[in-house]
Design a protein that fits this description.
This protein is α+β, with helices and mostly antiparallel strands and 706 residues long. It is built from 20 helices and 25 strands. It is globular and about 95 Å long. Bound molecules: aspartic acid.
Length: 706
């Protein structure tokens, strides 16, 4: 068998009939027609039906073929033939031809599979299993099998194409692909760092980059002018469905540019990568200021695929007799609403009052919600009698009300409560009423963000990161009101209500950068310690520069219309940020911690309560929060000594002198002499059905032996 002759299944086309070829791949599926064996042979490029016919193949080959099972890895040589009329299979691209096998080699066998890999039915019209039907953790545990499935494989191939498109485009615009360190210093992007302890410099830590922000700016100062990187970034954030602790950003930076350069370049790039998924986006992308986005959609990530934009009606109720509104006005509040045009048949009084006003709006943080339905030229609701004709007329005009329309209003003393609750109602209603056009993509630039946000302790924090240029430089870094009124030269690219990326024009003036740090409440000392090396670079002729980063997992997932970003990452973490395949994150042995100097850290800086741990009994008492009385001490001391002895036996049985931090093989180690028995429930898988965390057939528990 000479692999250099090997062709891909997807290469074989009608017209190749009569050719003798060598194919190699996996047994996707098989059908035995009494002596005649049909197999779907699958490789990365596709599927080819191969046929074992005793009239063509030798008995030896046919006997060997009878032993083939799903996912055996094989090579076959044979002749391409046109399929008989009526046996074509439209499910596969080579569905009009097949290979009559003469030689077969089993390259490697496969165990029974944890789930079906095959996704293509062998006969036309038959149903096949799709990736979404298998439990996701099981898919991730056997990801290498999952990747063999055509749906997952195609996503990974499409991702490659999109990345290739990015590289080609940026190269054509003079951008250089440059790598920046992964073991580095903390970068301020607002999340927690993943820390990596240094063995060589004990007690010191690297941080994994939350983004290459500092390095890409240093590359600009280094005169590289145009940089990009498909960079892995790490952020230790709380779990959310579509978030990964490590993710890939298309990170870019350029010198001697302004916002318009970024808009033009990123729009063109976005148009091209979306075209890889057959999606055409129109340029130029619309732009909306942050203020306008909040005023009209209640979100800094506005979904503009549908209307339902807010209108402010506060001034219509300046002199209202309706007590609730009047009280809100007296407290300086506001009232905003939306008109859901022509949907009153789907939004009955009952739905509006009992579902939306009573349940849904409060769950979005609103204290109440006012609704009105337009019928017979009038607005109707449970409270309409409290409003004057002028107010009702004002509403009709402001919302351009027609019969069949439904108005929803939220009033509150707090502006942010109004926009946030109404924003969520807007999305909820659009979803429920099917108002979001399918397969539509609406990119928009959000601009003019506030530079700072207020913190709880009366200070400010950067809305993006502290290197973002403000819209003006003549501010007083100690005047909080003035700081909160500043805008930034930042921009976000939002598509369908999801932030695809963001960036800014940066500060390139060292004094301005220092002023920003001062505004953030960082002392000269803090600044020098955290960013000294970075600020120093600004002393040597920093060019004006700016950039942006696009979240590529999210972009690819959107382009390929997958349910989750995990579908476009070869080896993603699951929803709990763990990897069911490798078991990461996993516990480590004390020895490893000792090598890294992590055990001594505690001694250097005693943790609260640590002094209690010096005496075993005090320690147990402290850990278990049980107060042990003086007279109980001798008895508990004896029990502890016994437990320690048993723990010693257990750790020896486990084959290690040192207590293991991970689950050890199943055996009854606590009662020498008793034999271990497995429960039937365990065999059936029911025992672990409710386990919070399972490894193989074991229930994972916290380490108890120390
Ligand atoms: N470093 C920023 C981020 O990760 C992007 C940028 O400002 O270029 O969000």
């Amino acid at each position: 068998m000479h692999f250099k002759e090997r062709l891909f299944c997807g290469q074989i086309k009608p017209g190749d009939e009569g050719r003798t070829i060598l194919l190699a791949g996996w047994v996707d599926a098989f059908r035995d027609h009494g002596g005649l064996l049909f197999i779907h042979l699958r490789d990365r490029s596709g599927i080819m039906q191969i046929v074992f016919n005793p009239e063509i193949a030798s008995k030896g080959v046919c006997d060997l073929a009878a032993t083939l099972r799903a996912e055996y890895c094989i090579a076959v040589r044979g002749e391409v033939r046109k399929r008989e009329a009526g046996t074509e299979n439209p499910n596969i691209e080579t569905g009009t031809i097949e290979l009559m096998v003469k030689e077969l080699t089993i390259l490697s066998e496969s165990d029974a599979l944890p789930f079906t890999v095959s996704e293509k039915a062998m006969v036309s019209g038959a149903q096949s299993l799709g990736a979404e039907k298998v439990n996701e953790d099981l898919r991730l545990q056997y990801r290498y099998l999952d990747i063999r499935r055509s749906s997952v494989r195609d996503n990974i191939i499409a991702r490659h194409r999109i990345f290739k498109c990015v590289r080609e485009f940026l190269d054509s615009r003079g951008f250089l692909e440059i790598e920046t360190p992964v073991l580095t210093m903390s970068t301020p992007e607002g999340a927690r760092d993943y820390l990596v302890p240094s063995r060589v410099h004990q007690g010191n830590f690297y941080a994994l980059p939350q983004s290459p922000q500092l390095f890409k700016q240093l590359l600009m100062i280094g005169g590289m002018e145009r940089y990009y990187q498909l960079a892995r970034c790490f952020r230790d954030e709380d779990l959310r469905p579509n978030r990964q602790p490590e993710f890939t950003q298309l990170d870019m930076e350029a010198s001697f540019i302004d916002e318009e350069f970024i808009y033009e370049m990123v729009e063109e790039l976005t148009v091209r990568i979306f075209a890889e998924g057959g999606i055409s986006l129109l340029r130029p992308f619309p732009r909306i200021t942050h203020k306008e986005a909040m005023e009209t959609t209640g979100s800094d990530k506005p979904d503009l695929r549908f209307g339902l934009l807010f209108k402010d009606v506060t001034e219509l109720f300046q002199d209202t007799n309706y007590t609730i509104f009047r009280q809100i006005m007296q407290r300086g509040g506001c009232i905003k609403g939306i008109n859901i045009k022509g949907q009153s048949d789907k939004l009955s009084k009952n739905v509006l009052q009992n579902e939306y006003a009573k349940e849904i709006a409060p769950s979005f943080g609103a204290k109440g919600m006012t609704w009105m339905r337009a019928e017979g030229g009038k607005l109707e609701s449970n409270i309409v009698q409290y409003f004057s004709d002028k107010e009702l007329e004002g509403l009709k005009q402001r919302f351009d009300v027609k019969d069949g329309d439904v108005l929803i209003m939220v009033a509150d003393p707090s502006y942010s409560v109004v926009v946030s609750a109404l924003g969520q109602l807007r999305l909820h209603l659009a979803e429920r009423l099917g108002m979001i056009p399918e397969d539509s993509f609406y990119p928009v630039w959000v601009t003019d963000f506030p530079l700072f946000e207020a913190t709880e302790d009366g200070g400010v924090t950067s809305s993006h990161h502290p290197f973002t240029a403000p819209d003006r430089e003549d501010f007083d870094p100690e005047n909080i009101d003035e700081l909160l009124a500043l805008h930034s030269r930042a921009y976000d690219l939002v598509v369908n209500g999801e932030e695809l990326g963001g960036g800014s024009i940066r500060i390139n003036d060292r004094n301005l950068q220092r002023k920003i740090f001062k505004a953030l409440g960082l002392t000269e000392e803090d600044t020098a310690q955290k960013f000294g090396f970075f600020l120093r670079a600004f002393d040597f002729g920093a060019p004006p520069h700016g950039g942006l980063a696009l979240g590529m997992d999210r972009a690819v997932s959107m382009i390929l219309r997958t349910q989750s970003i995990r579908e476009v990452i070869a080896f993603p973490k699951n929803r709990s940020a763990a990897c069911p395949l490798t078991g990461a994150p996993s516990m480590v042995k004390r020895g490893q911690l000792a090598d890294l100097g992590l055990l001594n850290l505690e001694a250097k800086e005693r943790l609260p309560g640590a002094e209690k741990q010096d005496n075993l009994l005090d320690r147990v008492s402290w850990v278990s929060r049980i107060n042990i009385k003086e007279e109980e001490r001798p008895m508990i001391q004896a029990v502890l000594a016994q437990a320690k002895g048993l723990a010693g036996i257990a750790s020896k049985n486990a084959g290690t002198e040192e207590p293991a931090y991970t689950v050890v093989p199943l055996s009854n180690r606590m009662r020498p002499g008793a034999s271990a028995e497995r429960s039937e429930l365990s065999q059936a898988g029911r025992l672990l059905a409710n386990a919070p965390s399972v490894k193989g057939t074991f229930f994972k528990v916290a380490p108890i032996l120390e």
